[in-house]
Specification:
Helix content of chain B: 25-40%
Strand order of the largest sheet of chain A: 1-2
Organism (chain A): Shinella fusca
Strand content of chain A: under 5%
Helix content of chain A: over 70%
Main location (chain A): membrane
GO molecular function, one term (chain A): branched-chain amino acid transmembrane transporter activity
CATH class of the largest domain in chain B: Alpha Beta
Mean pLDDT of chain A: 89
Number of helices of chain A: 13
Number of domains of chain B: 2
Order of helices and strands of chain A: HHHHHEEHHHHHHHH
Largest interface: A-B, 22 and 35 residues
Radius of gyration of chain B: 19 Å
Low-confidence stretches of chain A: none
CATH superfamily of the largest domain in chain B: P-loop containing nucleotide triphosphate hydrolases
Oligomer: heterodimer
Strand order of the largest sheet of chain B: 6-7-8-3-9-10
Distance between the termini of chain A: 14 Å
Number of strands of chain A: 2
Number of strands of chain B: 10
Subcellular location (chain A): Cell membrane
CATH topology of the largest domain in chain B: Rossmann fold
Low-confidence stretches of chain B: none
Membrane topology (chain A): Multi-pass membrane protein
Amino acid sequence: MKASRLLGFSAFLLAVFVLVPLFIGATGRWDFFYTLTSVALLSVGAAGVWLTFYIGRINIGQGAYALVGGYVSAILVTQGGVSFWLTLPVAGLFCAVISILIGLPILRLRGVYFAMVTLVLTEVARLSALALPITNGAKGITSIPLPGELSVFGLTIIPAFGSLSNPRIGFYMMAVVLMIVTYLVLWRIVNSRLGHLCRSLQQNEELSASIGVNTAYLRVLAYAISSFFGGIAGAMFASIAQSIYPSSFVVADSVNFMLYCFLGGLGYVFGPMLGTFLLYFGWDLLSIAREYQLLIYSGVMILLMLVLPNGVLSLLDKKEGGK
Amino acid sequence: MTPILQIKNITKRYGGLTAVNDVSFDVRAGEILSVIGPNGAGKSTLFKLISSFVPATSGEVLFNGERISSLAPHKVARMGVVRTFQETTIFRSMTVRENIIVSHHLRSKASLLGFFLGTKQAKEDEAAFAASADDIVDFLGLQGIRNELASNLPQGHLRALGMAIGLATDPKVILLDEPFAGMNHDETMKMVGLVRRLRDERGVTVLLVEHDMPAVMKISDRIVCINFGQKIAEGTPKEIRENEKVIEAYLGSEDAAIGM
């Protein structure tokens, strides 16, 4: 079992770091780099949403944290002259701290009530970005410089993106590394006691409290980790687009983050990653259907939810005769 | 010796309704004490008050002399006062074994971060939990269903699982909410034996709320009877059986109900 897992992981690394760039190089479809970079970053945000699902909360507010993370990074880089690589974790931490303040009161809510409040959060974030002086209103922040080089003790780990002949590959690599680290962290959370306790919370909060779990603390902790992922995803997006606007992440994006989780499967750590890939690519591919794009897309979504309520990954389970 | 639990003048009002009115009694370490009373007497509310799942309007609960009635439920559990639930509350999509293992949370020595990083302490903890879970499975006779999903279990096994979850927390006092409800005679007798062993072999003090009079009379060292939220009697099963007020409370079906 362990060996097969390692094999799968190696195959995945080989595919994303070698085969995909080779394939794109051979076909000349350089735009795929941008698409795949987006998939990787969106799946980082979706990983966070998935974790809130894992404690039994429907989170439709990840767009808010992506937006905040993007602004934090953009402001620090453009106005503070801080290295992008430093702003990345700072953006995540900033979002985590905000989410603790927001989460303390709202995580008491359950079900549709929590979902509604998180839905509003995205709109609050957008309006704040419009109103605050530091975010430069509707004009947003533009001409964000590309990430500089990252070096430790004089050793260059990542070269300056501006010096690369093709920064698109750089961004792709960076986004994929971020995605892999995120999902390793998520996988580890789920398979450690922390994840077991999250599951206990999801299934029965009262019983969870009665076995001594500090349910309020655990909820806030999971939500903070979730928002951290949202924040770093947003920061990377702002850096790639070299700009951020109040409308960079809107309610529709928050809803999409949730859909990625649904489609991939709420019971599977790698569900949101697969879900993001399928939905984002599927949407792109459906552009050949022109005006029917949205119709087909929504139709397929509804069908999938009816046929596979536990997500695409539940297909694997059925083959193996259940978990 | 101070009693392990002291319930002092506890009162709970919901709006104009007084569910529990100025109830006081002690629970001694190592005894099996039952709280009885007709439907709607306030037994379940009293239970929630003792485990601190609802705040008391007035009065207090002391555990080994320490006030626990205003603490969060998880803190009360941490001190060693653990409740099971009436409505067969379990972690539905976990297996029996997973249910029991996760409930060992209070015994963890490693921090959550330690578990995340997989430190030596965390691994030791997990191994100890697994061993203890198997121990509890054996104790309750759940060997045949240890890897069964909890949502697939029949009623009787669910009740035992609820008790297993409670046991996993290593309680000093366990509060059992109607452990015999919905059971036939044989199942009840089995459960009576189990609760006894809980006390005899594991040294757990048992406080239980129950309807089933024959079982209560059989199992209890002492009984507290409440009616309309007030304590009307306290004593040994024999004393309770002969108590005028108790008989009156159960009037109409007294003979059958009190098991005389």
